[in-house]
Amino acid sequence: MSIRPKKRLGQHFLSDPHHLNRIADAADLIPEDVILEIGPGTGTLPAVLPSRAGLVVAVEIDRDLIAHLRQRLNAPPTLKLVHGDILDVDPTQLITEHAGRPVPYKVVANLPYYITSPILRHLLEASPPPTLIVVTVQEEVARRICATPPHMSILAVSVQFYGEPRIVHRIPRGAFYPPPEVDSAVVRIDVFPSPRVNVPDRSLFFQVVRAGFGQRRKQLRNALAAGLRLSREDITRALTHAGIDPRRRAETLTLDEWARLTWAVAEVMKGDTP
Ligand code: SAM
What we know:
seven-stranded mixed beta sheet, Helicase, Ruva Protein, domain 3, two-stranded antiparallel sheet, elongated, alpha/beta, 2 domains, Rossmann fold, binds S-adenosylmethionine
């Protein structure tokens, strides 16, 4: 069966064994591992994974590819192909169903780039999340995920709240068919058993972060007052209480500072002077 890549589904296939093995190596696979793969595509990654892991559950949205995979891979018992949209399934529940009981699992995937951030959020917010995530993403996105102050973004804060990301390998665009417009990089995210910082309420934490980054290059005092609909006085008080100069910009804050700020904003919202 010949496969015509569908651009709208982010289909760029990787078949070079060198790069595929580097992705698998980055996941430190052992025979007991349970793996969730997102977008198996033409089946090149599932071809190297099941021999190294105990169980691979691969979710693919494209019905044509599922048919192709069933034919091509002669599905070994350790590989379960699931037709569906990863954003519509609870990843942890899916793994539990296939493993027969709740088990820790790793994610290994060459992600469809048009939904990189939603997929990462979906995985990191799963309950419990995977213990390790190894994903191929656009190189520029990989750098953003791993950024440090003063180059932080919502994406960097969101990923680093849950885990420790690092770039482990670079893949030039020419290694894919069809080649994407940019180079790619493999990011390994070691997920923490619980978030890196202690916050009063996770949704308030992300509300504060979104508000802070809401108006690019604005001083925090102004961006937060607008985004959280609080007075400049209240926000200035919260920032000062958290030990953060109100004139700083969101890109410069550390995770600890975002957490301290969330506690101070929670106090202001309750009407208590922090
Ligand atoms: N893993 C293959 C490889 O390395 O050659 C394919 C990678 S390709 C970049 C992304 C894959 O994700 C495609 O097979 C695409 O059909 C699939 N995909 C796109 N959106 C998806 C979604 N929402 N849920 C599951 N799979 C999706």
